[in-house]
Amino acid sequence: MLDAMGGRPYAALVWGEDSIDAWWWRAPARSERVDRMVISDVSPRIIFPTSSRLQEPVSTTEKEVAQRQILLFGVEGQRRIGQVTVAIVGLGGLGLHVAQQLAHLGVKKFILVDNDKIVRTNLNRCVGASHSDLGKPKVAVAARLVKTIRRRQAAEVHSVPQKLPGSAAVDALNDADVVFGCLDNDGARLVLNRVAKAYNLTYFDLASGIDAPGGRFDSAGGRVALVTPDGPCLNCMGEIDRKEAEYFLSSPTAQQEARKRGYASGWDLPKPSVVSLNGTISSMAVSEFMLGVTGLRPCEGLCVYYLSSLASPFQSATKRTVSADADCFTCSLRAVGDKAEVARMAAAH
User: Fold this and answer.
1) Distance between CA 309 and CA 54 in Å, rounded?
2) Which of 84, 214, 244, 314 is deepest in the core (most CB within 10 A)?
3) Which of 93, 111, 233 is nearest to 162 (CA)?
4) CA–CA dist 338, 281 (Å, integer)
5) What's the domain range around 275?
6) In this structure, is residue 224 part of a structural domain?
7) Count of domains observed in the chain
8) Which of 14-18, 235-239, 308-312, 339-343 shows the highest mean pLDDT?
9) How does pLDDT run across 261-318, given as a tens digit for each residue?
């Protein structure tokens, strides 16, 4: 088979009634175990072949800590949560909430991606950050938060102080089973959307916003969108503003010129943000992850949260069904990997 495939690796799977085994070869007489298989569907699943070295039971400590949630989804559900490697891209108001909740839920392996540092205006909404953290990388604050929560339980944290589409960030995401995008602009969102499709990643994209013209509250809300290998991407859902994305992916010189001509539409100006709304959207995303991974029910594709003005009090969460666009360019890049040339998407890089 190796000869027939021109030197490319060869893998073999054997399916049983209740189990699977898998091995792969890079050279003749050099077999290696396949330690884990990820099935990316509306709900991500992880399977450990019978020869895997990675299968491990839920520890006694984990059972004690997670006792109340095990009553919901059982020990098997807890084991599944502990098997998932989760990447969080963006560790601000949304991302730190997500990191905190996933650590409490029982996720053991984290990949944290963000090149920003904590500044004073972050302190109203960045969970786990304090005045003593001013100037520290956000990934360092997130890593400390996760490890503090996990304590005696296992925790592996890989921090990448770089933003997409940097090569180190893209490479790190390849080790993830599930990605949470907690980004504040559609340029970064466009890049992560393409990375998810190119590398067959399950991707929860989070967004929150407040409309308060002239300092008067009008409305607020957010949404959680799920991108899977076979499902619609953010472009198909209409969840990316192409003009905003182009602005953030252009060079600093081009951005300055756009601002002079009035084309930036306030994209680079500070926007209202409060911890409670970020917490609501983050909880929606983590709940969908929990429900899907444990098998309680499939993940929803698009969940939207609305909060109207105080003059007309109303809040609700709804779901929308979106189909993939057969002509979507991003979806056509599914599973092409490095051929997507993600690193070339931003002129600034």
Assistant:
1) 51
2) 84
3) 111
4) 32
5) 57-344
6) yes
7) 1
8) 235-239
9) 888 878 878 889 999 999 999 999 999 999 999 999 999 999 999 887 655 556 677 7
Q: pLDDT tens for residues 9-33?
A: 899 999 998 889 999 998 887 889 9
Partners of 160 in beta bridges: 113
pLDDT for position 303: 93
Residues 6+ apart with CB under 8 A from 74: 294
- Sequence-separated (6 or more) residues with CB below 8 Å from residue 257: none
- Comparing CA positions, the residue from 289, 14, 340 lying closest to residue 177 is 289
Hunting for tokens 């600093």 — which residue is that? 252
CA–CA distance, 233 with 10 (Å, rounded to integer): 30
- C-alpha 54/C-alpha 25 separation (Å) is 19
Rounded to whole angstroms, what are the CA distances from 264 to 163, 189, 190, 244, 258? 21, 17, 17, 8, 6
H helix or E strand, kind and range, residue 242: helix 242-248
Phi first, then psi, for residue 203 (nearest 5°) are -135, 115
| Residue (of 172, 156, 237) closest to 204 by Cα position | 237
Domain assignment present for residue 157? The answer is yes
The interaxial angle of helices 275-294 and 95-105, nearest 10 deg, is 40
- CA–CA dist 186, 119 (Å, integer): 22
Exposed, middle or buried, 153 (CB in 10 Å: 0-12/13-18/19+)? middle
The amino acid sitting at 184 is D
Where residue 112 sits, what CATH number does that domain have?
Answer: 3.40.50.720
Domain membership of residue 35 (yes or no) is: no
Is-contact 186 265, C-beta < 8 A? no
pLDDT (tens digit per residue) in 182-195: 999 999 999 999 99
Q: Is residue 115 part of a domain?
A: yes
Residues 84, 38: Cα–Cα separation, whole Å:
9
Question: pTM to 2 decimals?
Answer: 0.91
- Contact between residue 157 and residue 112 where contact means Cβ atoms under 8 Å apart: yes
Q: Where are the beta strands (DSSP E) in the chain?
A: 10-15, 20-27, 30-33, 37-39, 45-47, 85-89, 109-113, 156-160, 178-181, 202-211, 219-227, 302-307, 315-319
